[in-house]
Design goal:
- Chain C: This is DUF3445 domain-containing protein.
- Chain C: Pfam families: HODM_asu-like.
- Chain C: InterPro entries: HODM_asu-like (IPR021848).
- Chain B: This is Oxidoreductase.
- The complex is a heterotrimer of chains A (199), B (321) and C (346).
- Helices cover 22% and strands 30% of the residues of chain A.
- Chain A has four helices and twelve strands; from the N terminus they run βαβαβαβαββββββββ.
- Chain A has a five-stranded parallel sheet with strand order 3-2-1-4-5. Chain A has a five-stranded mixed sheet with strand order 7-6-11-10-9.
- In chain A, a hairpin with a 6-residue loop joins strand 9 and strand 10.
- The radius of gyration of chain A is 18 Å and the shape is elongated.
- The two termini of chain A are 12 Å apart.
- Chain B folds into three domains: 99 residues, Beta Barrel (Elongation Factor Tu (Ef-tu), domain 3), CATH 2.40.30; 109 residues, Rossmann fold (3-Layer(aba) Sandwich); 86 residues, Roll (Ubiquitin-like (UB roll)), CATH 3.10.20.30.
- Chain B is built from seven helices and 17 strands.
- The longest helix of chain B is centred in the middle third of the chain and has 13 residues.
- In chain C, helix 11 packs antiparallel against helix 13.
- The longest helix of chain C is centred in the N-terminal third of the chain and has 18 residues.
- The radius of gyration of chain C is 20 Å and the shape is globular.
- Classes of the chains: A alpha/beta (199), B alpha/beta (321), C alpha+beta (346).
- Chains in contact: A-B, A-C, B-C.
- The interface between B and C is medium-sized, with 27 and 26 residues.
Chain lengths: 199, 321, 346
């Protein structure tokens, strides 16, 4: 579980079956285990109205068959989050009220899928989330606005403009990223060492 | 400091009978200026000076927010209520001066909605009159489903159909026409928001059905002013001001507190805004809670009461007022 | 008699200064010799003649130059002005509020003629004379919020009210005290205040939100907030922090009086009628230490406030690096004498 730090830092829960007509699951890597755990408490036939989108990442084939065994109405396996997003956006664009969204896995997956759901008019408080696996962060550089993926260190170097960034807990759902602010702006000769803390 | 609204002096410029139960009242500012701009769903509190007592009742504004030369409200006559609607129907005449509050909106549109789905029952149509005018002016996407007892009692159904055509759907009880709620709720595009105004039973039914159909609570909006109910008289001690008061049969607890010269803040006087929430110091008896503000747990605790709509039966009640 | 608008800069050569009359009207934010967060919100009713509270929306001698600085910021970074799609109506509300307020308070500088939805707006200090149709965005050169806030001092946040919370869904922010509209847009009241230390634990924001969501039309409210800025720089944005951050290391005992500024925000809160949104103008006033100490009371009191400020707050406000130098300089103006109650300069 992620520790609660400041109020803009997302708090993730545990997936649970919601009342609804259709159920859309988006997961990456260990996030599949969250779906499988939830399936144990789901009512019979729950997945007959479900669509599972899964990006296995480093977990390879480990979770693919167990997820298929849930017999969702639709199953999709994709090589990356980026490759899954067009399909997700199209699914949301044609969906009706009564669709429930469940996101599980890394913060990057949860954040980007939620961003697509928000743009489709879904309120973030109605989306189920569960964080599993890596705590690597997506970080937006407040100076150049570029987003650096998979940040594990504090401070971190912006992959776009090269500034050394303090990675804050301040998080934007709209951008799906944490905020990075130049750590040595007041004295550019300061060069604090990087520590690996987001794993 | 407490929230509250400033008052507006108005003159009744016209009273129009709409059908056998409903009259429409038009107000203009007595000083001739235009009235404050408002948003669809807003209400005003109308002060009714009836000999030695003052009633303050909330009514939805139903005129177009795009035109504030006058405000209009519609009042349904309630022959068994506490007399507010009878006062409006029988005692208010054109040319009469009255005092109303600034508009307050506790039922506003969520302008993020991709589509606005409105469900009205009976006189619950009034806030939708203003909301549809506002949305139509901005090219908003809306659809209104309106249930009424009969064509004759379908207040403003003809006006709405003339304005918006196919976007208005009517259901008449006397023709056994039923609102196909489940089908309606399952066919709405993602991003639709639902608005309900009407009798308590209808609001509960629509909210429950929507929840079961997977509509998140943030997308479901409802306006339910509980009218204060008459009841047996009871005595109350106001601990802070050191006063003993008696709440009459036709009076609300809030009105009785005000009559004693104590003025708790209020916005809705219908049990929804939370402004007049009052702490209970001690009691011996039973609360008759009628509000939609306090949680069930708070109702059971005996620590709080909403004096605008709730009553009490028993030996003693001491309030922190 | 109109306002004598100064020609001055808030960047590069920093020629900003206050006239003696403006020093006297500065909204000094400390009513006692100590500071801690409080829900210090009060009704925004007209204050004494000549004070910054005389009118609901204050216009002062820095108006023309501040608007020039805003135009420079927006040309560099258009992301400082953003409005989510559902907030256009609130933008029209804000345009109406600012135009009617300015025209009523400063008729020699601003005129508004309304004929139904045909509006005619004259802004003499900025040389603007525009006719447009209220509600029709195609008749203005910018969206309604951007159009009118390019002509209004201070930052503006427009907050949508939903589900008992306030959502920062539109704004123009070019004179901010170190927060990013681009990052915070779309957040709720607790989220955008999340980085503020100490106040959450004290329940400040919970109480403030309850108050703000109940603000009604025709009954605005206000509060003061403060920080410090090195050089009279309006645009202390996080976006440009790597460019101005080094300023903080340039404070010396010799330059405190000219370089160090107390920065006060007059925040007001207004219910907008059509959209039911809340607008939150954040008006920034700057005063140099040399100007501040022309009031012996303000000099003594500010020395005591800064000296006793908790470390977390000093860090959050970004004062830590230069606080000792400024305190040393201010101490020469603090003889330990008692100060009178209230904000005034005596």
């Amino acid at each position: 579980m992620t520790a609660k730090t400041i109020l803009s830092r997302p708090v993730y829960g545990t997936l649970s079956p919601q009342p609804g007509k259709h159920h859309l699951f988006i997961a990456d890597a260990e996030g599949a285990a969250a779906i499988l755990d939830m399936a144990n408490s789901a009512p019979a036939g729950f997945f007959a109205d479900a669509h599972i989108m899964f990006v296995p990442g480093a977990t390879g084939t480990k979770y693919v068959e167990p997820l298929k065994k849930l017999q969702p109405a639709q199953f999709y396996e994709g090589p990356s989050i980026a490759s899954a997003l067009p399909r997700l956006r199209q699914t949301l664009a044609t969906a009706h009220m009564g669709l429930r969204v469940y996101l599980s896995g890394t913060e990057g997956l949860i954040g980007q899928a939620m961003q697509a759901a928000l743009e489709a008019g879904i309120d973030h408080t109605s989306i189920q989330t569960e964080q599993r696996g890596s705590l690597a962060r997506r970080v937006q550089c407040v100076h150049c606005k570029g987003i650096t993926e998979n940040v594990t260190t504090q401070p971190a170097t912006c992959s776009h403009c090269g500034l050394l960034l303090l990675v804050r807990d301040h998080y934007s759902r709209r951008i799906a990223a944490f905020q990075g602010v130049c750590i040595n702006a007041e004295d550019p000769t300061e060069n604090p060492p990087k520590e690996e803390i987001f794993r | 400091m407490s929230a509250g609204t400033s008052k507006i002096d108005v003159t009744v410029t016209d009273i129009v009978p709409v059908n056998e139960l409903v009259k429409r009242f038009h107000f203009r500012r007595t000083d001739g200026a235009i009235l404050p701009t408002f948003s669809g769903g807003a209400h005003v509190v109308v002060e009714m000076r009836d000999d030695d007592r003052t009633r303050l009742n909330p009514y939805s504004l139903m005129s177009s927010p795009l035109d504030t030369t006058d405000y209009t409200i519609s009042v349904r006559r309630d022959d068994v209520g506490r007399g507010g609607s009878l006062f409006m129907h029988n005692r208010v005449k054109p040319g009469q001066r009255m005092v109303i509050s600034n508009p307050v909106n506790l039922f506003s549109l969520d302008l993020r909605a991709r589509k606005h789905l409105m469900i009205a029952g009976g006189i619950g149509i009034t806030p939708f009159m203003a909301q549809t005018s506002q949305l139509a002016g901005e090219g908003g996407n809306f659809e209104l489903h309106y249930t009424c007892r009969s064509e004759a009692l379908g207040t403003y159904a003809d006006v709405l159909q003339a304005r918006y055509g196919r976007r208005i759907h009517l259901y008449h009880d006397d023709r056994d026409e039923k609102l196909p709620l489940e089908k309606l709720l399952s066919s709405q595009p993602l991003g639709t928001h639902l608005y309900i105004c009407g009798p308590a039973g209808m609001i509960d039914w629509v909210r429950r059905t929507a929840s079961e159909a997977g509509w998140p609570s943030e997308t479901v909006h409802y306006e339910h002013f509980a009218a204060p109910q008459p009841g047996k008289p009871f005595d109350v001690t106001l601990a802070v001001s050191g006063k003993q008061i008696r709440v009459g049969e036709q009076q609300s607890l809030l009105e009785a507190i005000e009559a004693a010269g104590v003025d708790p803040p209020y916005l809705c006087r219908g049990g929804v805004c939370g402004q007049c929430e009052t702490n209970v110091v001690s009691y011996d008896g039973k609360f008759l809670h009628n509000d939609h503000w306090l949680s069930e747990e708070e109702h059971r605790s005996g620590c709080k009461i909403m004096p605008c709509v709730s009553r009490f039966e028993g030996k003693s009640l001491v309030l922190e007022r | 008699m109109g306002i004598n608008f100064r020609k001055e800069t808030f960047r590069d050569d920093f020629t900003f200064r206050n006239s003696p009359e403006h020093i006297r009207r500065f909204p000094f934010p400390f009513h006692e010799d100590a500071y801690m967060y409080a829900v210090n919100i009060e009704p925004h009713v007209p204050g004494p003649k000549g004070s910054v509270l005389e009118h609901g929306i204050d216009v002062d001698e820095h108006y023309v130059s501040e608007m020039h600085d805003r135009a420079l910021v927006l040309a560099e970074d258009p992301l400082r002005c953003q409005s989510l799609p559902h907030m256009t109506l609130a933008g029209w509300d804000l345009l109406e509020l600012l135009m009617t307020s300015k025209a009523e308070s400063y008729p020699e500088h601003f005129t508004l003629n309304r004929d139904g939805d045909k509006w005619h707006w004259i802004n003499r200090p900025l040389g603007i004379d525009d006719r447009f149709t209220f509600g029709d965005v195609s008749t203005l050169p910018y969206g309604p919020m951007e159009y009118i806030t390019r002509q209004s001092q201070g930052d503006f946040c427009i907050l949508d009210q939903r589900d008992g919370n306030l959502w920062m869904d539109a704004g123009i922010v070019t004179t901010q005290a170190d927060w990013s509209l681009d990052f915070d847009i779309g957040m709720n009241f607790f989220e955008w205040h999340a980085p503020v230390p100490l106040a959450h634990e004290k329940g400040i924001f919970t109480r403030a939100l309850k108050f703000l969501t109940n603000i009604q039309q025709g009954a605005p409210a206000r509060r003061l907030n403060w920080t410090m800025t090195i050089n009279p720089r309006l645009d202390t944005s996080p976006e440009n922090y790597h460019k101005w951050g080094t300023d903080r290391a340039t404070v010396t005992p010799e330059n405190v009086g000219q370089k160090v500024h107390l920065r006060v925000e007059l925040q007001s809160f207004w219910r907008l009628p059509r959209s039911n949104a809340l607008v939150f103008p954040i008006r920034c006033y700057l005063i140099k230490m040399d100007e501040l100490v022309t009031s012996p009371k303000w000099a003594r009191r500010f020395h005591r406030v800064l000296r006793d400020l908790p470390t977390e707050l000093a860090d959050y406000k970004g004062l830590s690096r230069y606080r000792p130098t400024v305190l040393e300089w201010l101490s020469q103006y603090d003889d330990g004498a008692a100060t009178s109650p209230g904000f005034g300069p005596d």
